[in-house]
Specification:
2 domains, alpha+beta, 9 helices, globular, six-stranded mixed beta sheet, Trna Endonuclease, Chain: A, domain 1, 24% strand, 312 residues
Length: 312
């Protein structure tokens, strides 16, 4: 299945034109540090080495910051598959798109030394996107997935999985994609309204340099919906969202994320907790959570109002 990615080529896309003309996507994070010996072994092995390397290069930063940076670096250099579709935002707010066409290449002495070859195909404008896609594409993360919007991006780019015709692929995947989009909208709503929620009283979504970076925080088993930190900086909170009823399988999913946080991100004196948010629960998840330490369940409620306009 084709995945869809966004890559920010420098702040505001300052290097996008250079990369597109050269036929590449590029990222930085560790400057002229050759990461080739650490690729090809999977995300977990990459993190176990490169998180420490990054903290050596930037000793004033935290483990959370290291995990974020190295998660983005791994996604760009190895996580993307050849044939995946990648978008790059240009300074004029339009979006170039193309397909990943090669493996990792190292260009020391350049602004973006860690690169993948891309067959750039065209451009579309922000106005061509739905508000939901435009909002997600505007994230300040350097590398992140847009596969929740695969159906829309397939139409915008006219690119599809080379093994499977577009119409067949869309017909097979449309139900999952609609589910992903609904969960993404729930996630965006929660992030935008975080401070007014019960969780917002005790936790802040992880930020770096004043920018929200805890949404779709990368891990070696996939991105967490939200990573938050308590206001006293002693507890990290993993948030997993489900649009309807949560099944007991989500308990294992959030435990994997919490295990990653515990092993890779916690500083001395910190602990990790989890919360699953869904519209409904059932007996299975209640049983699973009854013996799952430090994980709780919360329900969300959607309210819909109709009002008549005031008479003239």
């Amino acid at each position: 299945m084709t995945d869809y990615w966004m890559v920010r080529q420098g702040t505001g896309g300052v290097y996008a034109k250079e990369m597109i003309e050269a036929g590449y996507l590029g990222v930085d994070f560790v400057g002229d540090y050759d990461i080739r010996p650490y690729l090809g072994k999977g995300s977990k092995e990459f993190h176990s080495i490169m998180n420490d390397v990054w903290l050596t290069l930037y000793p004033d930063k935290t483990k959370i910051s290291a995990g974020l940076s190295m998660g983005n670096l791994w996604a760009a250099c190895e996580g993307m598959k050849e044939g995946d579709v990648v978008l790059a935002r240009k300074p004029d707010q339009s979006y170039a798109y193309g397909t990943v066409a090669g493996g990792y290449e190292y260009f020391p002495g350049t602004s973006l030394p860690h690169r993948r070859r891309v067959d750039w195909r065209g451009t579309f404008t922000k106005e061509a996107m739905t508000p939901e896609l435009a909002s997600s594409a505007g994230s300040l993360m350097t590398v992140f997935s847009l596969s929740a919007y695969a159906a829309e991006l397939a139409r915008l780019t006219q690119l599809s999985d080379p093994v499977e015709p577009l119409v067949t692929a869309l017909a097979a995947e449309v139900e999952d994609q609609l589910a992903f989009q609904m969960e993404k909208q729930l996630e965006d709503f929660l992030v935008h309204n975080w401070r007014s929620t019960e969780l917002g009283r005790d936790y802040d979504i992880y930020e770096e340099d004043g920018e929200v970076k805890g949404q779709q925080y990368p891990s070696d088993t996939g991105p967490m919906d939200i990573l938050a930190i308590s206001k006293d900086r002693k507890r990290l909170l993993v948030v997993e969202l489900k649009r309807e009823r949560a099944s007991d399988s989500v308990v294992g999913q959030i435990q994997r994320y919490m295990g990653y946080v515990q092993e890779e991100l916690l500083e001395p004196g910190q602990s990790v907790e989890g919360v699953i948010i869904a519209r409904e629960d059932d007996l299975r998840i209640r049983r699973a959570l009854s013996i799952a330490q430090n994980i709780r369940f919360m329900k969300y409620r959607v309210e819909f109002h109709l009002e008549s306009p005031n008479p003239n």
